[in-house]
Design a protein that fits this description.
It catalyses: L-leucine + 2-oxoglutarate = 4-methyl-2-oxopentanoate + L-glutamate; L-isoleucine + 2-oxoglutarate = (S)-3-methyl-2-oxopentanoate + L-glutamate; L-valine + 2-oxoglutarate = 3-methyl-2-oxobutanoate + L-glutamate. The modification N6-(pyridoxal phosphate)lysine is found at residue 195. Keywords: Amino-acid biosynthesis, Aminotransferase, Branched-chain amino acid biosynthesis, Pyridoxal phosphate, Transferase. Its cofactor is pyridoxal 5'-phosphate. It is a single chain. With 354 residues, the chain is α+β, with helices and mostly antiparallel strands. Helix content is 23%, strand content 31%. The chain has helices at residues 63-67, 90-103, 111-124, 197-201, 204-212, 258-269, 281-290, 327-340, and strands at residues 8-9, 34-41, 44-52, 70-72, 75-79, 85-88, 136-145, 158-167, 175-179, 217-221, 228-232, 236-241, 244-248, 274-277, 279-280, 293-300, 304-313, 316-319, 351-353. The strands form 2 sheets. Strands 9, 10, 11, 12, 13, 14, 15, 16, 17 and 18 form a 10-stranded mixed β-sheet that branches. Strands 1, 2, 3, 4, 5, 6, 7, 8 and 19 form a 9-stranded mixed β-sheet that branches. A hairpin with a 6-residue loop joins strand 10 (217-221) and strand 11. The longest helix is centred in the N-terminal third of the chain and has 14 residues, at 90-103. The protein is globular. The termini are close together. The structure holds pyridoxal-5'-phosphate (PLP) and 2-OXO-4-methylpentanoic acid. 2-OXO-4-methylpentanoic acid binds next to loops. Pyridoxal-5'-phosphate binds next to helix 6.
Length: 354
């Protein structure tokens, strides 16, 4: 790891590592001993520090709380059999971090600061990276506006932080999914392509309503007439239809997922026909009816490869083949894990060693 960022490190006097139950890790509830924090003011990033994980004091007037100048990233670190630790494709998240910053009128963070802050905090807490199968260290970089000012204007000050914590799988079962035909996650000209906190806030009511109807996830459709598929919950969505891998092309309503890109890259290398284009609800439901829909899954850092078991629209439910019998998603999940956990040679340079 390069170590050019001048980071002040204050270690905890009481590690919680031995009190942590690594056999019971619901997503996002366990945090490691340390976190990274930096401040932005006078047009520059400063005060790089690693401190014990815990509460921080903030004014109740900070504009992030009132006007949503806040966004985040999500990536993971993996432990290899030989004990080495790698972070998966942090350069991609660094680029997306700055796309989100740009859309929310927030300052960019140089890629070196993004990557070195992550490497430093993961290094400080490397004993927290789980070694169990399907487990990883989730990394949550985020930025938020800190001016204590109620005027609706971009803040002049910000904080950038990185939290980390061990996680197991986000989804533990095959998903019963509903195609959303009323609510919208993102509209053209909006900020669906940014990992803005507000995108997730707005998704909670539709997700709760779907859960009350017995569904595990929503498939978001276009805001105009709900005819085209966009994403699935907090993941991209991919299909194998008649032997081709099909996924909605990225646009300003869709997050350009790292997992999505990784899956597409592998599929192309394997010689599979790949189509990134608008995907209509009609063709997917037709494929589900006539058996040509061979695979459907969510793709995301937290979600990994999450199989869709059934797709419903307006009360009609279509069941897909048993995930265990799906050739593509099984193969891609195996290969992704083999790369991330260092079981095969990383020919793409995707693993950033810490
Ligand atoms: N789409 C949304 C809305 C997400 O929140 C995520 C999760 O990060 C993804 C897609 C998948 O992106 P990635 O594979 O980079 O995690
Ligand atoms: C991720 O996959 O990293 C995400 O951001 C999903 C999260 C909102 C749970």
């Amino acid at each position: 790891m390069t170590d050019t960022l001048d980071i002040k490190i204050t270690k905890t006097t009481h590690s919680r590592l031995n009190e942590t139950d690594f056999d019971n890790l619901p997503f996002g509830k366990t945090f490691s001993d340390h976190m990274f924090m930096a401040d932005y003011s006078d047009g520059e990033w400063k005060n790089f520090q690693i401190i014990p994980y815990g509460e921080i004091g903030l004014s109740p007037a900070i504009s992030a709380l009132h006007y949503g100048q806040a966004f985040f990233e999500g990536l993971k670190a993996y432990k290899h059999a030989d004990g080495q630790v790698s972070v998966f494709r942090p350069d991609k998240n660094a680029i997306r971090f700055n796309k989100s910053a740009g859309r929310l009128c927030m300052p960019e963070l140089p890629e070196e600061i993004f990557i070195q802050s992550i490497a430093a905090v993961v290094d400080a807490d490397r004993d927290w990276v789980p070694s169990k199968a399907n487990h990883a260290l989730y990394i949550r970089p985020f930025m938020f506006a800190t001016d204590p000012y109620l005027g609706v204007t971009p803040s002049a000050t910000y904080k950038y932080m990185v939290l980390i914590g061990p996680v197991g799988p986000y989804f533990s079962k095959t998903l019963r999914v509903k195609i959303e035909t009323h609510y919208t996650r993102a509209a053209e000209g909006g900020f669906g392509y940014a990992k803005a906190a507000g995108n997730y806030g707005g998704s909670m009511l539709p997700a709760r309503k779907a859960a009350e109807e017995g569904f595990d996830q929503l498939i978001w459709t276009d805001a105009k007439d709900h005819q085209y598929i966009e994403e699935m919950g907090a993941a991209n969505v991919m299909f194998v239809l008649d032997g081709k891998l099909i996924t909605p092309s990225t646009r300003d309503t869709i997050l350009d997922g790292v997992t999505r890109d990784t899956v597409l890259t592998l599929a192309r290398e394997w010689g599979m026909p790949v189509e990134e284009r608008r995907v209509s609800v009609a063709e997917i439901l037709e494929g589900a009816k006539n058996g040509k829909l061979q695979d459907a899954f969510g793709a995301g850092t937290a979600a990994t490869i999450a199989p869709v078991g059934s797709i419903s629209r307006d009360g009609e439910e279509y069941f897909l083949v048993d995930p265990k019998e799906r050739e593509f998603s099984q193969k891609v999940l195996r290969e992704l894990d083999a790369i991330k956990y260092g079981r095969v040679t990383d020919t793409h340079g995707w693993n950033y060693m810490v």
